[in-house]
Amino acid sequence: MVERLENIDELFRDDLKNLTPEMPEGMWERIAEKIPSRKRRLIPIIWKIAAGAAIVIATGSIATYFIVSQPDNKSYTESNNLKIVLPETNQNEAPVVATEKNIATTQKKNAIYKPVEAKAVVPKNQTEALFSENVIVDQTQPQETIDSENESITKEQTPETIIIASEQNLQQETNLTNQETVSETVSNNEILANNIAEFEEYQEEKSDTKWLIGSQAGPQYTYRNISSETYSSSALAEKNETENGVVAYAGGINIEVQSKGRFSIQSGIYYSKIGTEFVATRNVQQTLVENSLAQPGDKDKVFVTTSVSYRFPNSSAKIVTTSSNTSSEYTNQPLGSDEIFEPEISSNNSSYLPTFRYQEYLEIPLIAKYAIINKKVGMQVLGGFSTNILVNNTGMIKDPDFGDQGILADDINSISFSSTFGLGMSYAISSKINMSIEPQFKYFLSKQQYDSNVDIHPYSIGVFTGVKYLF
Amino acid sequence: MKKTGRIILTLKNNIQALNSQLDNIIKGCQQYESRAQKELFDLFGRKMFGVCLRYGGNHSEAQDILQDGFLKIYEKIHQYEFKGSFEGWMRRIFVNTALERYRNQYKIINIQDGWRDINEDCYEHITDNITANELLSLVQELSPKYRVVFNMYAIEGYSHKEIADELGITEGTSKSNLSRARIILQDKVKQLYSTALKVGV
Question: Interface pTM (ipTM) of the complex?
Fold first, then answer.
């Protein structure tokens, strides 16, 4: 009996222990209204006294250090809202503002920067984040309180800020003598902006995964390498010598996932155009037709029919000629290199014609990146593989006399695979946007052409510029 | 084997990531951050509301318990030492909040031990047809003294000694209340599904 009753326990427990019913509307608002505001922790008076004593002792020690180690020269310089006051200044007197005439040499390590109008109005939440750690007060002055209730907050320099400010300012100084002028000083707002930017950068680095979307484009020099197990090495060399590379272009959009470390993975979709240049020859055949086309009144006239044909090396693609108001299509008979470099001069009136073939791909890359330098100016090495889908395969023979002649080719594999290696340099314009420039080398791992006698592996060297947005 | 190992590793990594996220939320609540308090409510609110519904006799009472419970959580979250299950810690606070309300509203009368079971039938194969909402309604219909003991023993897993200490009753009373709650629930389940298969006693 007990067992049967305990079964009822199990029945209810299985369904009700982890019950997650719908939350009634407005429930959070009800609760939030009643959450008490931040309680002021009651710190025993003795801790307050101890904290005050510690601050006074620390202030005095550091002030003593700076006072003892300062040279006798006093030096002031003033920008719109920044004043440099050296420790040996009499704090009871108003600081003497420097003019261009009375500036003396300052020493880098001992300069302390005190903001004159140090009111940087920043968004409250940024400020709260920025000042969530204890702020170290300017040791030479009485401690200023931070009024966290008002929107504008008096900015106090942290030691890090002091270092940054002094280095920034002094890098911009010319050689100082008693008569020289400090050319520029960094304003207080710029220091604050740098701090906020660095903090935001730190916050970004803390997050586990970052996503960036961007675009990239650039020119690429493309060429192809012909190899074969059928042809002799000399024949292959001649084949390769008949071809030249072309400058084409590539571009597309990408998406990058950055992990907590320095690694990231990038993919996307690109349009990539590669090609080859070679020379074709034109053969002109003229046939004298005597009398067969003569009409009454055409006495002494000679009729000539003209046909033009072309040949180019390394491909059996079809050629579409459009000369003489006719269009004909025929299969190319590949030229040997000797026919190009040592053509027979004949009545056929052959001439060399620049010939181009282009392949256009949709490229889907999968690239791994490693950040060698992971700062505002960054550097990465990258490598990966791409799937290339052929979307267009064109060509033309540029004949100045008879116009461009088309090349139809179906001798290219529709899917090819390539590998990519490169070096990237990036610059963070802001916390969300960065620009990059990436030289890349790409090599087709799979054969480009169907021809079983040859292996053709195009490659390209390009420089791509891009911009990415972090979200 | 390798695939299982990968799955386990993926789950483990996911759990670690979730625990890390939860730790951040708890620390935020300890810093009185409104955003963290809201995130905690979003994360556990529904589950704790389920607890409140079981102890409260109706929806309105459950909402009151939920409100009081979360206020208590935010007040006491500094006492959580990041040891043990945080959900378990929250659940105990909500149960105590419900009991506090119960103690203030109801008197517990010790019932004599040895309550005689009047229904010896047993039914099987009906669990698949009962929804959680129906079970919840049955629990809510119980008298408060039975509802509290049944929730604490059968669902939360308290012992009779712990229940007795919490409610200020004897262990015998706790056992009797539990027994009575079970019988009532069993009858109600039977009434819901009168065509259920009857298994020999």
Answer: 0.76
